[in-house]
Amino acid sequence: MELRQLQYFIAVAEDCHFTRAAGRMHVTQSALSASIRALEIELGAPLFLRTTRQVELTQAGRALLPEARRALCSVESARDAVAAVQGLLRGTLSVGSLQCLHVVHLPAVLARFHELHPGVEIRMRQSGNAELVEDVRAGRLDLAFVTRQPKIADDLRTSTLASEPLVLACAPGSPFATRESVGLNELAGQSFVDFNADWGTRDEVDRALAAAGVERHVAVEVNDVHSLLDFVAFGLGVALVPQSFAVKTERAHFVGLRGDVDVPVAETVVVTAGTVGAAAGVLLDMVFEARSGRLQHVAS
């Protein structure tokens, strides 16, 4: 099995088309098809269902795809490790993040990383928790910043960036605004503003309210912090948000939580594969330095 075969296989799997994949890999379609056939013969199973209209992965192909991505990722990590020993970082660093990441100023950290290591191409994208974690597991991302999930695959590693309690955000005219604290059970019947499913702290809030026996109605769904707080401030619903969100607006009011169950906590983690590449390791060091205050100038 050759690395080139795995690269061709992944290209066809992603494009679902032999001609487009050949163009992307800068080879003739006949050469790419021959390589795929040779791989299928070696593995003893067809990897694609080929019709005149489409190309689909077989069950064997679906099983191979994440392993092929991990194999290529390991090769790149090996090359990066040798380059790092020589004092040079190179290659590609693929980063994923929630749009509502608030515990570190990621654009500033990435800018600093690029300044120090211009030989590394940075690729960055935002998505929901589950998709980002799956992309790390499949080797499409080197690391991802997400909120902690109840179950993360055993072959992944998580490192906690921050942990903070959730608080109630409400409009200044809300009856809750004059309170020192609010119980979760008191939120029954309230309209909520929250992130889209699998976005930000939405999953944690869903779990916390369900544990408190509160069946809630989400009237407004958003995918960014500032919109959420604006809708809350104008009285279109209440929200449960990390305590640090209070610094993002002066229009909404924030009240602490209490109750028979533990106050829910928002925990932000960084997820990586079992083996971390050289570039990803350097970025992680910079992120934790920024969190500890040793790189405060990065976020200024």
Helix content: 25-40%
Give the helix/strand class. Answer: alpha/beta
Overall number of strands: 12
Beta-strand content bin: 15-25%
Largest sheet: 8 strands, mixed
Q: Roughly what is the average pLDDT, rounded to an integer? A: 86
How would the global form be characterised? elongated
Number of helices: 9
Radius of gyration: 23 Å
How far apart are the termini? 49 Å
- What string gives the helices and strands in order? HHHEEHEHEHEEEEHEHEEEH
Uncertain segments: 294-300
Protein model, in words:
The structure is a single chain. This protein is of the alpha/beta class and 300 residues long. Helix content is 39%, strand content 24%. It contains 9 helices and 12 strands. The protein has helices at 3-15, 18-25, 29-43, 59-85, 106-116, 129-137, 202-211, 225-233, 278-292, and strands spanning 48-50, 55-57, 91-97, 120-126, 143-147, 156-170, 181-183, 191-195, 217-222, 239-242, 253-258, 265-273. The strands form 3 sheets. Strands 3, 4, 5, 6, 7, 10, 11 and 12 form an 8-stranded mixed sheet that branches. Strands 1-2 form a two-stranded antiparallel ribbon. A two-stranded parallel ribbon has the order 8-9.
Summed up:
The protein has 300 residues and is of the alpha/beta class. 39% of the residues lie in helices and 24% in strands.
